[in-house]
Amino acid sequence: MWPGKEVSNMLSSSEPNYDTANPAYIRKYLRTYGLTPPRAESYEVQKTRCR
To answer: Where is the composition biased (Polar residues) (predicted)?
Structure first.
């Protein structure tokens, strides 16, 4: 079930990175289903939406 190094690095960083760019396997590991939008979005899409 462990998604690997990517989640390990994310969880060990000083600032959590719980945004809509996280892929489904990280969302599953973090148990954030229902707490985040239904699909992952790239940072570029998020940036465009905020303009």
So the answer is: 9-20
In total, how many domains does the chain have? 1
pLDDT tens for the chain, residues 1 to 51: 455 566 666 555 555 655 667 777 887 888 876 766 777 788 888 888 887
Q: How far apart are the first and last CA of the chain?
A: 37
The pTM of this model reads 0.38
* Secondary structure element (H or E) that encloses residue 15, with its range: none
How many CB atoms neighbour CB 29 within 10 A?
A: 17
In terms of residue numbers, what domain contains 32? 5-49
